Amino acid sequence: MRSLDQLVEQSARSLAHRTSRRSLLAHLGRLLTGAAVLPLLPIDRGSRAHANEAHPGPDSAESCDYWKYCAIDGFLCACCGGTSTSCPPGTIPSPISWVGTCHNARDGRDYMVSYNDCCGKSTCGTCDCTRAQGEKPMYRPSRNNDLNWCMANNADSNYHCTVSVILGVAEK
Amino acid sequence: MQSFPRWTAALGLVLASAAPCATPTAPAPLPPPLPAERLTVEKLPAPGPHWVYVFDDAFDNETDMRVHLFDGDSFRRLGQIDAGYYSSFNLSPDGATTVVATTYFARGSRGTRTDLVEFTDNHTLAVSGEIVLPPKRAQTLPTPFNLAYSSDARLLYVSYVTPAASFGVLDPAKKTVLGEIDTAGCVLVIPSGPNRVSSICESGRLLTVTLDAQGKEVSRSMSEPFFDADRDPVFVQGVPTAVGFAFLSFLGDVHEIDFRGAQPQVSAPWSLVSAAERGVWRPGAQQVGAIHMHLGRLYVPMHKGGEGTHKDGGTEIWVFDMASHRRLARWPMKAKGISLVTVVQVTQDPAPVLFAATASADVAVIDALTGQIRHVERKLGQTPWMMLTP
Predict the structure, then answer these.
(1) What residues have CB less than 8 Å from B35, skipping those under 6 apart?
(2) Is A49 in contact with B309 (Cβ distance < 8 A)?
(3) CA B26, B27, B29, B32: dihedral to nearest 10 degrees?
(4) Is there a contact between A21 and B315 (Cβ–Cβ < 8 Å)?
(5) Confidence category of residue B5, pLDDT binned at 50, 70, 90
(6) Can you tell me the mean pLDDT for A26-33?
(7) Rounded distance, CA B99 to CA B119, Å?
(8) Are B110 and A155 an interchain contact pair (Cβ–Cβ within 8 Å)?
(9) How far is CA B38 from the centre of its chain?
(10) What ipTM describes this predicted complex?
(11) What is residue A40's predicted lDDT score, i.e. its pLDDT?
C-alpha cells in the first residue's frame, strides 16, 4: 500500500507540476471566451463517508466513483432528477463554480471540469459524494469545494446538488 | 361491521372455556394513583468542566443546522441552539454566549435572503439578540475563523465571501454593524488582541488589519509566506495555542504562529511524521487538531492516504508534545469500534476529556491522558463537523 500511495502521490504531483496555475487560467480564459454557457469559477461541504452512498458502477453518473467527480463535494444531481451536466427541474444553476482536473481512464486524457451547484431548493440528500483530488482550502476559492457556490444567487442561494461539466482537455 | 359483536362474543366464549378452572381470588389492591404532573422547562445546571458544543452541519437538510450542548461526564445532551442555513458558530471569550452567523430565507427554503448573527445566552440557551448583516456572509464549512470575537469581546468579526472577500466588524454590545474591511482576496477572521484581525492569503501570507475603537481600519501589513498552497497547503482550521494558533499542513507540518504582538510571528515548522511516514500518514477531515495548553499536548486524527485524502477522517489519533515535538502515543480508533475521526476537541482542565466526532456522526468521549474510551454517544446529529469547549 505504501508504494501504491507514493506512486499515486508522485503522479498527482507530476500532474500538478505539469499544469501550472497560469496555464490553467489561460486555458480557462480561452474556454470562457465565446462560451456563455458555463459559469466559471469555483463549493463543498466536508467529510462525510466517501464514495459511499451511490453504488452504481464507476462509469455511471450516479456513482461517486465516476471519473468526472474527482473533486466534487455534495449531492450528485444525476440522482436528484438531473444528470451529470444538467440541474434538476425547477432549480437554478450557480453562475460561479469551482474546478477540478480529472483523469479519464477511457481516453487517457486529463480534463478540466467545472463543478456548478444547482440552487433554489433544499438539499437533495441523495448520493452524497466527497472527493478532493487537487482540492484546496478556501484561500484558493477556484479549487475549493467547501464554499456554497450558490452564494451569488441571492434569494436562490439554497444549495440542492452539484453537476460536473467538462470545460476542455487540461493543458499539459 | 355488523357481525363484530357476535364474533367477539363467540371468541370470548372460546377463550373462557379454554381458561383453567381456578378458585377465584380477590384482585390485588391497586397502588395509589400517580400524582398529577406539572409541565416545566428544564433549567441548565451550572457549567461542567467537560461540556462541549457540537456543531451539526445537518448536511442532508442544510437549512436546519444546529449546535448541541453535550456533557462529557453525564453523557447527556443538555440542549440545542438552532443554527439555520450553512452557518458558522463560536463562543464568547468568557464562554457565556454562543454566536451563530446564519442565513434565513423568507419562505423557508427560498425567498429573500437575510444574513444575521444570533446571540444565545449559554445559561438559558435562549436567543438573546441579533445583528442583521449585509447578505455577504461566507457560507462555508465551520472553522474557528468564520466568526470570532476580539480578545476583550468588544468587537465581533464575521467573514464575508461573495466570492469577493472581506469581513464585517460588529459591536456585540450595541448589536450594530460598525463597518466592512476589504481583505484583497485573503479569507477568514483570525482574531488577536482587542483590535487585530488576520486573514489567510493564497500566497501563503497573513494579512493583518489593525482597527480603532470604532472598528475602522488603522493600518494593514502582510507577513512573509509561511506555506506554499501548491506544494503543501495548510488547513484553515487553526488550533488555538497558548500564544496564538497552530496550522497543520496537508502533509503534516505544524506551523505555530505567535499572535501576541502587532505582527504575527511565524516559527519554523515541525513535522507530525517521520521521513518514512511523510506522504503516507497524514492529518485530515474537518477539525484537524486540538491542544491542551497546560499539558502542551496536541491531538491529531491521522490516516494513511495520498494526495486528495485531506478530507478523510483518522483511523488513529496521534498525541504529540508541543515542546519537544515528540510523538507520545498512537491511539488506534478502528480497533475500538470508532469509525473515521473527523473532528477532535479537548477540554482544558487538569483531568481533560478528548472528544472525537466521527464520519458516522458518533462522538467518542476519551480520557485525554490515557486514551481510554469512556463512552460513545451514537448519532450526535447528522454531521458533527466542529466542536468547541468553553
Answers:
(1) none
(2) no
(3) -160
(4) no
(5) very low
(6) 35
(7) 5
(8) yes
(9) 35
(10) 0.90
(11) 42
Interface list for A 115-134 with B (CB within 8 A): 120-123, 125, 128, 130-134
Sign of the Cα pseudo-torsion (B57, B344, A54, A142, in order): positive
By C-alpha distance, which of A71, A97, A78, A73 is closest to A153?
A97
Reference B147, options B172, B126, B164; nearest CA is B172
Q: To the nearest whole number, what is the mean pLDDT of chain B?
A: 94
Looking at residue A57, what is its pLDDT?
A: 75
Give the whole-angstrom CA distance, residue A158 versus residue B231: 34
Rounded CA gap, B280 and B296, in Å?
26
Q: Supply the pLDDT for residue A55.
A: 57
Residues of chain B with C-beta less than 8 angstroms from the C-beta of A148: 86, 139-140
Range B80-109 average pLDDT: 97
Measured from the Cβ of residue B20, the count of other Cβ atoms closer than 10 Å reads 4
- Residues B306, A120: C-beta atoms closer than 8 Å: no
CA B200, chain centre distance (Å)? 20
Nearest C-alpha of chain B: how many angstroms from A135?
A: 7
Tens of pLDDT along B121-166? 999 999 999 999 999 999 999 999 999 999 999 999 999 999 999 9
pLDDT at B28 over 70: yes
Q: Is there a contact between A118 and A82 (Cβ–Cβ < 8 Å)?
A: yes
C-alpha cell at A163: 453537476
Cell of B301: 486524527
C-alpha A15/C-alpha B189 separation (Å) is 33
Residue with cell 461539466: A165
Give the bridge partners for A101, in sequence order: A112
CA B222 to chain centre: 29
Instruction: Tell me what pLDDT residue B98 has.
Output: 98
Residues above pLDDT 70, as percent of chain B: 94
Distance between CA atoms of residues B182 and B204, nearest Å: 18
Least confident of A24-38, A99-113, A144-158, B314-328: A24-38
Round to whole Å and give the CA distance between A171 and B20: 89
Q: Which of B56, B57, B59 to mutate to test the interface with A (most CBs of A within 10 A)?
A: B59
What residues contact residue A15 under an 8 Å CB cut-off, 6+ apart?
Answer: A101, A103, A110
pLDDT at residue A13, rounded to an integer:
36
Which residues 6+ apart lie within 8 Å of B195 measured at CB? B150, B155, B210, B211, B212, B213, B218
A139 CB neighbours in chain B (<8 A) are 186-188, 200-202, 229, 236
